[in-house]
Amino acid sequence: MNQPRCWAAIPAAGIGRRMRAGRPKQYLELGGRRVIDHTLARFVGHPAIHRVVVALHPEDPYWPDCAHAGHARVHTVAGGAERADSVLRLLDWLLQQEAADDWVLVHDAARPCLPRADLERLLARAGAHPVGGLLAAPVADTMKRDDAHGAVRETVPREGLWHALTPQMFRVGMLHRALGDALARGHLVTDDAGAMELAGHHPLLVEGSRANLKITRPEDLPLAAFLLEEEKD
Ligand code: C5P
Hints:
Blueprint: E1 6-12, E2 29-30, E3 33-34, H1 35-41, E4 52-56, E5 74-78, H2 83-96, E6 103-106, H3 116-126, E7 132-138, E8 143-146, E9 152-156, E10 162-171, H4 172-184, H5 192-198, E11 204-207, H6 220-232
Parallel strand pairs: 1-4, 1-6, 4-5, 7-11
Antiparallel strand pairs: 2-3, 6-10, 7-10, 8-9
The chain binds cytidine-5'-monophosphate.
The site of cytidine-5'-monophosphate (C5P) has 17 residues, from strand 1 and helix 2.
């Protein structure tokens, strides 16, 4: 049998409501480039990654100005209403490339600081696992659950809790089935591992760095700029 290929699938069709920045967060400027160009540079040209496919909003006016627009190894598809819908469209496209038995690394466009060492660790460890896995960081802070009125209801023990990061690495066909079933049953799926869990799988947790932050709020941008500067040293 041929070696499975490894694809990167980047949902980038969000419009960034939480950012209040005038344009979607993946298109904000970060160290002289767009956030999404930093993100794509982690995968394009990586020897283990065959091709990259990006889901864009159907009326996205920003993509054509990006450094990776038109790149021979970068393909685009139209995204959907929610992140999970966009991922499903990416997986539909991959199935058209006869990639059902290949690996796919799903990675948020808004995570431009993915450390190279984390990507290598995920490829090695999840790639040797029957189901696949995800980068994740152990929870460091004490966790509280609110009472819906702004006060504490209880402290949630943080032991065994992880932040789910991306990339999340699974077989294209398995993830397509799991995500399609989860959406058809009306589940709210906020990450790809969640769909695999609903299908009865137990994805591998691969420890990753908190430097792999997702740009969500305005204060995340200077932090990301600092982390990228540090990386150069
Ligand atoms: O909004 P959130 O931070 O969860 O978005 C995570 C990633 O999913 C972002 O890269 C965003 O562009 C993408 N997304 C998408 N399609 C949507 C919503 C979000 O591709 N409908």
